[in-house]
Give the backbone structure.
Amino acid sequence: MRNRLVLLAALAATALLAVVPTATANNSADALAGPRCVKAGVTFLVQNGLLRDAALTQIDYDTIDSDGGGTAGLINTDLPAGSYLPLGTVIRLHFTNPELFDWCA
Amino acid sequence: MEAQPNELTSRLAVPEDIPALTALMDAAIAELQRAYLDDAQIDSSRAIMGIDTQLIEDGTYFVVESGPEIAGCGGWSRRATLYGGNRTPGRDANLLDPAVDPARVRAMYTHPAHARRGVGRLILSLCEAAAAAEGFTRLSLMSTLSGEPLYTAYGFQALERLDDATGGAPVPIVRMEKSIVAETALGASGPRMAG
């Protein structure tokens, strides 16, 4: 039950992030930015042997975020502990909020 | 990262897997559809299901293993064929345009002994990541009735319900689609099939 609540909290946080409009997401001139961003993220997961864990929702993304919400982490926001996000959610954020991901810079 | 015994692992399928994958598909077709189809429909469904070696050749077909056993398989495609095996009529190998077309999720099967352990969801996640990295923003598939709950839980929406009588008895199938870039439903996974 606790894990479920943590996950729901994490999802709520990321859902809020997803609806924040960004200049990059709205730039239709660069339609390939999203796929490039996803590709970079998938490459990171593959190179670190994490793709399977990500696909099984077994990665706590809080362990690679910036905590303070700055740019000191691989994910540039402060996620709650136990942010085991579905890979589909993470992929969606690569399209809507690429600024969150270090590998999309 | 080392997988624990009986943990699910994934890799791309290779031609040497074809005999084992064919046997797995036969078992899945025969057993996992029993709650939804009668015997005639199960026999008929073999005409519109089965292995599609084009997916293996394209490097878009995954094998999921649990220890030494193949627990399931499934993949995605940048080609127009929506469902069916090598012998299914109406195949279309034309390449899709990621800007306008949905990528296909194809040939999802779980071995009955590994049912309801997350095999299907693992494959779907791998397919979604791979298709998104190639620029696709939507996924589409043709589902069996037994597969529909999994795909619905994963965020797919039913668009069209059809009967395919290619193999004789009409087999109910459901065309489904999911956005990669928009919010989708979350839910439990389960072992199911897609064409």
